[in-house]
């Protein structure tokens, strides 16, 4: 199964390399690509911060449950 996936990814990567992406070139020329990158980075950082906060809350609840059992 792994060999099939590897072959599929290699085939798909060869198809992608041969294509030129006009939209990215236009956005880069207009300077808008930096806005897209900034939005993606902001969303990614927001998700990471949210997960860290949730991890802290879960640890707190786990400690409370652990103390009730003892």
Features of the shown structure:
89% helix, flat, mainly alpha, single chain, 70 residues
Short description:
By secondary structure, this protein is mostly helical. It is 89% helix and 0% strand.
Write up this protein:
With 70 residues, the chain is an all-alpha fold. The protein has one domain (2-69). Helix content is 89%, strand content 0%. It contains 3 helices and no strands. It has helices at residues 2-17, 22-30, 33-69. The longest helix has 37 residues, at 33-69. The protein is flat, with a radius of gyration of 22 Å. The model has no long low-confidence stretch (mean pLDDT 84).
Uncertain residue segments: none
The span between the termini is: 47 Å
Number of helices: 3
What characterizes the major β-sheet?
none
Q: How many β-strand stretches?
A: 0
Q: Which percent range describes the beta-strand content?
A: under 5%
Q: Which structural class fits the helix and strand makeup?
A: mainly alpha
Q: What's the structural domain tally?
A: 1
Would you tell me the overall average pLDDT?
Answer: 84
Order of helical and strand elements: HHH
Q: What value does the Rg take, in angstroms?
A: 22 Å
How does the overall form come out from the CA principal axes?
flat
* Share in helix: over 70%
């Amino acid at each position: 199964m792994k060999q099939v996936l590897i072959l599929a990814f290699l085939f798909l990567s060869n198809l992608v390399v041969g294509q030129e992406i006009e939209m990215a070139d236009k956005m880069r020329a207009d300077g808008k690509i930096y806005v897209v990158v900034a939005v993606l980075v902001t969303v990614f950082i927001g998700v990471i911060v949210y997960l860290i906060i949730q991890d802290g809350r879960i640890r707190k609840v786990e400690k409370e449950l652990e103390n009730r059992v003892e």
